[in-house]
Automatic annotation (TrEMBL):
The chain crosses the membrane at residues 26-51, 187-204, 210-234. This is Transmembrane anterior posterior transformation 1a. Its main location: membrane. One of its GO terms (cellular component) is endoplasmic reticulum membrane. It comes from the Eukaryota. It is found in: Membrane. Belongs to the TAPT1 family. Keywords: Chondrogenesis, Membrane, Osteogenesis, Transmembrane, Transmembrane helix. GO terms for biological process: cartilage development; ossification; positive regulation of cilium assembly. It comes from Amphiprion ocellaris (Clown anemonefish). Residues 284-321 are annotated as: Disordered. It is a multi-pass membrane protein.
Length: 337
């Protein structure tokens, strides 16, 4: 929905409009962001209720973590599926941190920003973060052990994400700086940002000129932090791309499609069209009407015929997808038979 809105808003005017227009797409996007923000608010409310009753928090954490381990540990995974699951874990952990921030803001606002209450919330926050990290470690350890996947594969995943970030900084890039990485992870920041801004506005009361000046300074500090963060991430990404020897892929151009004249040599007039093909001991030359006499192919035994057939089957198999070709729509938990 958001992509349709962006494309409709930036569509060239000379192009024939096949869409329903900017205004309907805008209302569809607003309705979607509203529903997604409501869903995240329900999650934050559930976590807030669990924080206020410690027994419920422990029960929810145990059930949620047990279901997550059970649903992924005893399945067969390949490198591409593990890559998608790693991206999903990154997105889930970041979302859980934002939910914890929302819960802490609401609780501190209820207790009139008493610093002593922050130490009451600290053990629960520490337990949630520790359980998330421990579950991810156990889950990935089981998956890599049972599927014979080495730990070096995570360096490839990091290089793939770094390649996405570096490629989005090129002049001919079609996406925003962080949009390609967010797409690969399936992360949609707009509903989460809308909910966080609404919670901050309702929790922090701004009154007086001094408060507004502090708010402006805080905003400028966040902008500066974002710029510094983008510079550091870009530098680290360049280092990882060079370390993985993926610099050549940044400057690759799509191969030109063969023209119709190349497919029909008879339309090229008097130009010579020569095709040479070699298969074992046979050689043929087309276009100049000179062919070498064919020689009988040597007889092969049954074992050699079996090996030749197996080699041809391996040749015609579809190659495995590269990590850079995996999009955000790949389901992480699919079982591979």
């Amino acid at each position: 929905i958001l992509d349709a809105l962006y494309w409709t808003a930036t569509e060239p005017k000379e192009r024939k409009r096949d869409s329903i227009g900017v205004i309907p797409h805008f209302f569809m996007a607003v309705f979607y962001v509203f529903l997604h923000a409501i869903l995240i608010m329900v999650q934050a409310s559930t976590l807030n209720v669990a924080f206020n009753s410690h027994k419920s928090l422990l029960t929810i954490m145990m059930s949620n973590n047990f279901v997550e381990i059970k649903g992924s540990v005893f399945k067969k995974f390949e490198k591409n599926n593990l890559f998608q699951m790693s991206n999903s874990d990154i997105k889930e952990r970041f979302t859980s941190y934002v939910l914890l921030l929302i819960v802490c803001l609401r609780n501190m606002e209820q207790f009139s920003w008493n610093p002593d209450h922050l130490w009451v919330l600290f053990p629960d926050v520490f337990m949630v973060v520790t359980s998330e990290i421990a579950v991810d470690i156990i889950k990935h350890a089981f998956i890599t052990k049972f599927n014979d996947i080495t730990a070096d594969v995570y360096s490839e995943y990091r290089a793939s994400l770094a390649f996405d970030l570096v490629s989005s900084r090129q002049k001919n890039a079609c996406t925003d700086y962080s949009d390609s990485v967010a797409r690969r992870m399936g992360f949609i920041p707009l509903p989460l940002a809308v909910l966080l801004i609404r919670v901050v506005m309702s929790s922090v009361k701004v009154q007086g000129a001094l408060s507004y000046s502090c708010l402006v300074l805080f905003y400028l500090g966040l902008v500066t932090l974002k710029v510094l963060n983008s510079i550091v991430l870009l530098g680290k990404s360049c280092v990882y791309v060079k370390r993985a020897n993926m610099e050549d892929k940044l400057f690759e151009r799509p191969a030109p499609t063969p023209s119709s004249s190349a497919k029909s040599p008879s339309k090229q007039g008097d130009a010579a069209y020569t095709v040479q093909c070699r298969k074992d001991a046979q050689t043929c030359t087309l276009g100049n009407r000179t062919t070498e006499p064919e020689q009988p192919a040597p007889s092969l035994s049954k074992e050699e015929e079996g090996e030749t057939q197996a080699a041809s089957e391996m040749k015609h198999r579809t190659p495995k997808k590269d990590l850079l070709e995996i999009d955000r729509f790949t389901i992480c938990g699919n079982r591979i038979d």
